Each structure stands twice: as C-alpha cells, then as structure tokens.
Write the structure tokens for this entry.
Amino acid sequence: MPVGAAAANLNGSKFVAMGFSGMNVWAIGDLHLALGRPEFRERHAGRWREHAQKLAREWRGVVGPEDLVLLPGDVSMARNHREVQPDLAWLDRLPGSKVLAPGNHDGWWNGVAKVRPMLRRTLMAVGGDALATHGTVVCGSRGSPVLSDDASAEQRAEHDRELASLDRALAAAASLRTANQPLYVLWHYPPFDQHGRPGSCVGRFERAGVTACAYGHLHSEGQWSLAVQGEVNGVRYACVAADAIGFRPLGLGGSDTSVPHGMEKAP
C-alpha cells in the first residue's frame, strides 16, 4: 500500500505523515488469544485470567480509529486457520489498523502469503517482507533468540533462516521508504540477550536506519528488568509483551503519544 512522502522527527516520538496528521502508532505483542480453544483459556491464571477483556478495555482506552497498532508475534494460540478465526474477528473489531507478524506460538501462521487472504478489513501482515501504511513503513519476521556460545546446529540453522528473512524484509522496506519516513520492525524475540549483548539483528537495524523495533516474548518481571529498552545507536527498542505493559498498547509515535517511561535513551 504505497503512501505519500512523510516528515519525521526521529529524536522524539512525533511525526507528521502526509494525510495522516494526528495519527498515532502503538505496539503490543503476545496477546495469546485463544477464543477458538476454550479448553486452553481455562489454563490462564493470575494476571492472564480473562485477559482478552482486559486487552479490549485498555486498547479502546487509548487507540483511535485512525491509529496504527503493531503486533510482534504470539497473536493467537490457535493451531490452524479454522481455530484462529474467532481471534482475528475479535482483533478486527478493535479500533485502529493492525499489522501482525508471527511469534513462536503462532502455530496457525503458515507463511504470510497464506495468511493475508484470510485477514479481516483492519488487519495486515508482514513476514520477511514490508508494507507502507499510515505514513510509515513496517517490516518484520518471527525472529530468533540471540545465539549462545553453546547453541545447537539446529538453533544456528534457524537463526540463519530468520536473519535471511530479516534481510529480505529490510530490503523490501528500503524500496518502499521515502526520505525520513519512520521504519518500524516487528521482531518477536528480544534483540539483546539477558546480559545486554546485541544479537546479529541489531547491526542490521542500525544500518537500515530503523526508527523502532517492537519485540515481546518475555513474561516475567526478572526478564523485563533486564530487557534493553530505549534508544541504542539511533534505534528505539520496546518490549511490548502484553503482560509487561499492563495489557495496554504502548505508544511508539504520533500526535497523542509521548516517549514512554523506560524508552528514553538506554544506558
């Protein structure tokens, strides 16, 4: 969906895109919806109990109909296209346009080319490619964890496949992007390990001039406290796992969002 030229202030969170003044960009991942799997929903406890209702309430409290919401993976616990239909219908009813990318629990996702035809009106998807919408460019892939020194051959092969997918996504984004247009990357796994060491994706983000990377996958307070957030070498990182942000979409940019707490320059 090609769009017109945009002007951006990448040092802050605001941008004005031609025809999209007043629009906001939000992100939230790891929704773990299971509306088509009632037996799975019964397993939820604690902060995840009735989390779909919490998500809907918080979402409607901040997201407007003209806004864009980025979802970096683990959208649904469905195992196939039939089971995911109630979850996609639920998402479609929420305000804003949404861009989905896969996570490790999205068993229903069998490639972006097969997913796109079944998406509802307000839903879009990226997976090893990119799209232009709402005055921004969005690209992404499932991603992979930062490799440890003792990673198995299988883990290294999967890591290489995801880096190749990211390279295709960033190349596609470069072909769509106009001067100073915001570029958002959806990458399900944390781009840095628990010690703050960057994965192979980070240098790629920096060379591509990525505005912000939204990721998730982390579900404990100990993990959240170690997650790299804020600006690092010109790229803003945000952990947007739903439970990490109180089930409320996090503002990444726009006229009504500010740089979120914890997303200033990283130490």
